Amino acid sequence: FTILGIESSCDDTAAAVVHIPGKGSAQILASVVYGQDGLHAPFGGVVPEIAARAHAEKLDICVAEALAQSGKTLGQMDAIAVTAGPGLIGGVLSGVMCAKGLAAGSGLPLVGVNHLAGHALTPSLTDQLDYPYLMLLVSGGHCQFLIVHGAEEFTRLGGTIDDAPGEAFDKTARILGLGQPGGPAVEREAQAGDAARFALPRPLLDRPGCDMSFSGLKTAVLRARDHLIAEQGGLTRQDRADLCAGFQAAVCDVLTEKTRRALAIYMEEQPTKPALAVAGGVAANQAIRAGLETVSTEFEARFTAPPLALCTDNAAMIAYAGAERFAAGHLDDMTLAARPRWPLDRSSPAMLGSGK
Ligand code: ATP
Ligand code: FE
């Protein structure tokens, strides 16, 4: 079957058409993403009201473009999947209202999707990955280890107790006067940097388990910057590069070491050959991908990292997660609500969604 996906939970307006020829396979027929970086740049971060208005303006165009690129009409879809949370509520509402309008007009079934489930299932868009697998979901607002037992069944093993790494990348970029989004900017600068010059912390590495912390790291970057300013009046290009390299290495060390622990826990519970997958915007980082691949090799685990464009927000992942819900008969109706918070763990009743 064929699904239209809609995503608007943060600062990307996206629509996609995904065809599911059979179980365990997927074809992306179209995936359109309108970023909003230019709109938020003057404010140094995403402004929710501006994001919501931009989503409302762009959603219709985005959907029309995705359908046109896919060569299909709305009437040829089998369902409409939309991110119903978690995220900035104004944006999520814009998407849900757009999807409801399309569903009402076409008579197509409506499927509400958890944005995090979208990220966690992304590997299946390009790889034939069997359940269960261990997922490191590492994005702008989240960082957690999940055992993905099935399309709607997740166990959380641990995660950040404060900031997400994406947020830390963005804040570090802001501290160093680099553009937003911070991840790609910091990664670019880090290439010319010496990671060993500044001693930055690796929070919580001394504690057992796979919880993580990243807020102290950005504070350490801030202190190092202020120290340089006090000493020499400003930062050279090399200072910036070294701080970026040091920051990225610290994030990478924490993620790889905690992945070792998560894999060890996972392998105690799952006797099958282990598989590790990564998703979310920070998974676009080459150093982090390489670090995780090394850990997988140590554990003789299969490693999957989606193409960069599918790591950051997109609607193909929402269409795919929606297809899985649709196949399971979990449909929504016009009462589908937009949720600012929606944890992704089977121990949480919220995960059941409004699906009937
Ligand atoms: P969430 O999915 O948690 O709601 P989000 O949707 O805003 O948050 P994503 O779109 O998945 O997050 O990821 C965006 C984040 O990824 C940003 O914080 C951005 O800086 C970061 N990011 C993007 N590319 C890179 C990169 N190459 N290296 C590190 N971080 C990156
Ligand atoms: Fe996201």
TrEMBL record:
EC number(s) per entry: 2.3.1.234
UniProt key word Nucleotide-binding: no
Which annotated residues bind Fe cation? 115, 119, 313
Give the record's cofactor note, including how many are bound: Binds 1 Fe(2+) ion per subunit.
Q: Which UniProt keywords apply?
A: Acyltransferase, Cytoplasm, Iron, Metal-binding, Transferase, tRNA processing
- Name of the protein this chain belongs to: tRNA N6-adenosine threonylcarbamoyltransferase
Does the entry feature the keyword Metal-binding, yes or no? yes
Describe the task this protein carries out: Required for the formation of a threonylcarbamoyl group on adenosine at position 37 (t(6)A37) in tRNAs that read codons beginning with adenine. Is involved in the transfer of the threonylcarbamoyl moiety of threonylcarbamoyl-AMP (TC-AMP) to the N6 group of A37, together with TsaE and TsaB. TsaD likely plays a direct catalytic role in this reaction.
Q: Where is the Gcp-like domain?
A: 27-320
Q: Where does substrate bind?
A: 137-141, 170, 183, 187, 285
Which EC main class describes this enzyme?
Answer: transferase
Location in the cell: Cytoplasm
Task: Write out the GO biological process terms.
Answer: tRNA threonylcarbamoyladenosine modification
Gene Ontology annotations for the cellular component aspect, listed alphabetically: cytoplasm
> What reaction does this catalyse?
L-threonylcarbamoyladenylate + adenosine(37) in tRNA = N(6)-L-threonylcarbamoyladenosine(37) in tRNA + AMP + H(+)
The domain of life for this entry's organism is Bacteria
Q: State the needed cofactors, names only.
A: Fe(2+)
